[in-house]
Amino acid sequence: MTTPVVLAAMRRLAAIDEVTARSSHRAPTVRGGGVAVVLGLFVGVLTAVLVAKHDGPNLLPFTAAATLFGLIGLAEDVGGVTAMRRLALHVAAAFVITAMTVLAAVLGDPTPGLAAVLAVTVCAPLWITGFVNVFNFMDGINGISGMSAALAGGTLAALGALRDAPAVSAGGILVAATALGFLPYNFPRARIFLGDVGSYTLGAVIAVLTTQAVLVGVPLEAALAPSALYLADTSVTLLRRVRAGEPWHTAHRSHAYQRLTIAGWTHPQVTGLVAGVSTIVVALSLASFGPWPGRLTADLAAAVVLAGYLRLPDRVTLATVTAATTPSSATAPPTATPSAATPSPTLPTQRVAPSASPSPAAGATAGVSGDTSGGTSGSPAASTPAASTPAGRTSAGRTSGRDAS
Predict the structure, then answer these.
(1) SS3 track for the chain
(2) How far is residue 19's CA from residue 100's CA, in Å, rounded to a whole number?
(3) In Å, what is the CA distance from 55 to each residue of 24, 109, 159, 257?
(4) Which residues, at least 6 apart from 244, have a Cβ–Cβ distance to it below 8 Å?
(5) Cβ contacts of 269 within 8 Å, gap of 6 or more
(6) What global pTM score does this model have?
(7) Using one digit for the tens of pLDDT, what is the confidence trace for 166-197?
(8) Rounded to whole angstroms, how far apart are CA atoms 90 and 95?
């Protein structure tokens, strides 16, 4: 309900994502739609507090995460924050939220074991800070973050209900509900982007709920399953850039999902793939509640599925390049060439094609160049007459998305 109001407000504040060489969208688009997501979360928390007569879910760490990281993201969307200052704010907020989460778990019932408390106390600040940025990096095309947040929220809600953890269950429902409420404004056509305020907030609350799920005894594989694809894509991309000697901390378009869009896949296709792979990983993670042999087998199967997703862009790119560079004469039957000594006469009903007309192979190559341009204004498809028709059929807003990294 509040997204149209936020859309108008952000437009007045000139919070606009312009098209750059690393953009996945083709027209300037308003950002900061995550403000509506934060407002939705606040309304949900308030409703949960008012409805619960006694012993309601402790949503204080959840609310603190949405508030602190939402404010940091809003400052970045509206005015901009330097990278080092932003990182310092992330770490400080993560320590505060970790302290609140651990304290709530220790004072709750049942009390987690000492080993779990110590592990979370040490690892949670790094986990929360890291996953907030991972979620931000992966928020680059239409619907990908909304779909992923809805799946994560639904999964965590089910896990919380299974372990009788009202805070995890209620928080998961709120995440899924707000993500689904925002999706119509961002998928398949993006009228507004989540922005940093949205990606930071969703990443933070999912990280907090994952931490709480581990504290109440949910197996680690099941708790991390909804986030596994995001973690794998970001980690492998970072490692590949470091090994290639590239400046890993700068913006880029080399995530697996971005390379798929560069290779010609549409935003709905890539978003659907991400949602499908994540769903498979979540289903396999349920084996972690069973005996160890089945658990290890499911973990191996999940790793194979994620590896297949990460290798898919290379396969798609290779297939596209092969199709574009295959000569058209390779499949055409050989034709007899008339002898120069005895030229055959041209009948009056025959038409000889002009030699300057483009060949089908050239048109196909131009089309591939346009698809892999990533939406930049100087793409070959935009300046080649042969590719003007396909470009005209694709509206600027229809393929809009954002590379948040």
Answers:
(1) CCHHHHHHHHHHCCCEECCCCCCCCCCCEECCCHHHHHHHHHHHHHHHHHHCCCCCCCCHHHHHHHHHHHHHHHHHHHCCCCHHHHHHHHHHHHHHHHHHHHHHHHHCCCCCCHHHHHHHHHHHHHHHHHHHHHHHHHCCCCCHHHHHHHHHHHHHHHHHHHCCCHHHHHHHHHHHHHHHHHHHHCCCCCCECCHHHHHHHHHHHHHHHHHHHHHCCCCHHHHHHHHHHHHHHHHHHHHHHHHCCCCCCCCCCCCHHHHHHHCCCCHHHHHHHHHHHHHHHHHHHHHHHCCHHHHHHHHHHHHHHHHHHHHHHHHHHHHHHHHHHCCHHHCCCCCCCCCCCCCCCCCCCCCCCCCCCCCHHHHHHHHHHHHCCCCCCCCHHHHCHHHHHHHHHCCCCCCCCCCCC
(2) 40
(3) 46, 11, 19, 43
(4) none
(5) 260
(6) 0.78
(7) 999 999 999 999 999 999 999 988 889 999 99
(8) 9
Q: What pLDDT does residue 384 have?
A: 38
Q: Is the pLDDT of residue 260 over 80?
A: yes
Distance CA 147, CA 160 (A): 20
CA 39 to chain centre: 22
Q: Which residue is it, tokens 């970001």?
A: 234
The size of the chain, in residues, is 405
Angle, alpha carbons 258-238-300 (nearest 5°): 85
CA distances from 117 to 201, 212, 265, 371 (A): 24, 10, 44, 50
What is the tens place of the pLDDT at every residue in 347-399? 343 334 444 444 433 333 333 333 333 333 333 333 333 333 333 333 333 33
